[in-house]
Amino acid sequence: MKFAFYPGCTVQSEQYAYEISARRIFPRLGIQLIDVEGFSCCGYPLKNVSVSAWFYLAARNLALAEKLGLDIFSLCNGCNLSFCEVRHYLERDPTLKERINSLLSIEGLTYTGNAKSLHILQILREIIGIEKIRAAVKTPLTGIKLATHYGCHALRPSKLEMPDDPEDPQSLEELIEALGAVTEDYPERLDCCGQGLAMTTGKTALAISGLKLRAVQDHKFDGLVTICPFCTKMLDAKQNAIKASTGQKDLSMPVIYITQVLGLAMGMKVEELGLNLNLSPVGETLKKLGKI
Amino acid sequence: MSTDDLNSSLRRIPGDHHPEYCHQCGKCSSGCPVANFFDFRPRRIVAMVQLGIIEELLESEDIWKCAQCLACKERCPRDVAPYDVIQALQNLAFKRNLVFPKDYSVLINSILKQGVIQKPTRVRIRKHPPPRDKTKRAFKFGDRTSLRLPKAKKPAEIAKFAIALKKSLKGDEK
User: Fold this and answer.
1) Mean pLDDT of B55-79
2) Cβ of A51 and B120 within 8 Å?
3) What CATH number belongs to A2-118?
4) Would the CA dihedral through A70, A75, A79, A80 be positive or negative?
5) Do B47 and B90 have their domain in common?
6) Which of A16, A92, A153 to substitute to test the interface with B, most B CBs within 10 Å?
7) Residue B19 and residue B78 in one domain
8) Residue B12, CB half-sphere, CA atoms under 13 Å: how many?
9) Contacts of A93 in chain B (CB under 8 A)
């Protein structure tokens, strides 16, 4: 099955590990990722100052996918939510849709609503299916206990047909178990990463991320599995800043994208999955798995 | 602007916000991740809008302390969507050029110029396992090209894109 591949600004400008591992594993699981020239920001970063700009930017990317007759597969929770939410509003408000279309006409684009956006969990669970994933496992990830972090925008608001239950999601848990690793619930599992505050109060954003990492570490997990580049930017890339800002000197938690975990179980190598790009101490998890 | 005018301006900003449905149960504030750090309470913001104390909200930094986690919107038993109330207030504050984080202007300029929030950056590439010789550097730098990733995406005709985006930024109301 083919999808218009939408990495999103954060992935294509810095979170390369997610893009590398996604480009590596999805074709093997029967998903063809089509690169679309012309994609722009999804609009999410502007919704707080201008919902109108957000509508325009999200609809613009959907219109580009629509032109190719493809649905969007976005790697980012925020981008996917943008597309789903804007599509929801435009479907219900013909006047708004008309206004957005007059803006899109400047670039010769039209939005009808034919293209939708799918979340990575929907692609993995509903399009590929857990059985196919189980069958692709070559080197089961036995002996490690992984925590999950969905990220707020994967699950809320649930009225938008989100990929899993907003208060008790299980798809990542199912996937991790299918790969041979162990996972378990922990009270802070659905807690926010704090990234949404980075622009206004960076210190608080770090403090909230620190609480999450502290919890994962205290519950003695060997790693934290993520699906959103924005959350990962906080939890993986800012671990040193969190340590310094919150005084938690002993904080040390490997943070790994689901695509990287999948690839490891499928027998792929560290570099093939961009595991040399994670900034958190993923070497520890790789050692436990006998991958290095 | 009169309270009535402010109220109708807020209502005209698209979203699911319905402050008038709120019966002050407090579920939003109790689940808010920011409430542990600041005197930031979604319930109070909704109550202030209900009472018409809007101008004060628009001129305070409080409405920008939201982490955008959407827990309040998800859990509200009355479909008030406190997050959307806050977002509408933020939109109005920006539109009236009142209080808003200045980084938004940087962000807007960046999207206008290149279609995305930032250009591809250089990143650190590590060695696993790290080199035994501690005097050797444990990483080198790489970019999309050296990592063999295709070119980052951006609008083909950036000038037209920017015209449309500028127009969209001007017209927020229904």
Assistant:
1) 97
2) no
3) 1.20.1050.140
4) positive
5) yes
6) A16
7) yes
8) 12
9) 14, 174
Residue B52 pLDDT more than 60? yes
The answer on B83 and B8 residing in a single domain is yes
- Min Cα separation B160/chain A (Å): 6
Q: Is B97 on the interface with A (CB under 8 A)?
A: no
Helix or strand run (H / E) with residue A205: helix A202-218
- Give the separation between CA A79 and CA A228, rounded to whole angstroms: 10
Q: Is A93 in contact with B14 (Cβ distance < 8 A)?
A: yes
Q: Looking at beta carbons, which residues of chain A come within 8 Å of B167? A: 103, 106
Q: How large is the ipTM?
A: 0.95
User: Residue B48: which domain range?
Assistant: 3-95
Contact A57, A43 (CB under 8 A): yes
A96 touches chain B (CB under 8 A): yes
Cβ-Cβ contacts under 8 Å, A233 against chain B: none
Mean pLDDT (chain A, rounded): 97
Residues B42 and B125 in one domain: no
Written as six digits, the tokens of B174 are: 């229904």
Q: Which residues contact B12 (CB under 8 A, 6 or more apart)?
A: B172, B173, B174
Q: In terms of CA atoms, which chain A residue is nearest residue B61?
A: A200
Task: From chain B, pick out residues whose CB is under 8 angstroms from the CB of A104.
Answer: 164
pLDDT in tens, A92-151: 999 999 999 999 999 999 999 999 999 999 999 999 999 999 999 999 999 999 999 999
User: In the listed set B79, B95, B111, which residue is the last one of a domain according to the structure?
Assistant: B95
- 8 Å CB contact between B92 and B59: no
Whole-prediction pTM value? 0.96
Looking from the CA of A130 toward its CB, the CA atoms found within 13 Å total 11
Count of domains for chain B: 2
B119's tokens: 């250009």
Please count the residue pairs, one from chain A and one from chain B, whose beta carbons lie less than 8 angstroms apart: 197
- Which residue blocks in chain B are alpha helix, DSSP H? 3-12, 27-30, 42-50, 54-58, 71-75, 82-95, 103-114, 158-170
Which chain A residue's Cα is nearest to B31? A191
For the segment(s) A138-288, the CATH number from 3.40.50.150, 2.60.120.200, 3.40.50.11810, 3.40.1160.10 is: 3.40.50.11810
Spatial distance between the Cα atoms of A57 and B27, rounded to a whole number of angstroms: 33
CA–CA min distance A214, chain B (Å)? 15
Predicted local distance difference test score (pLDDT) of residue B136 = 84
Cβ of residue A53 closer than 8 Å to a chain B Cβ: yes
Pair (B112, B56) in one structural domain: no
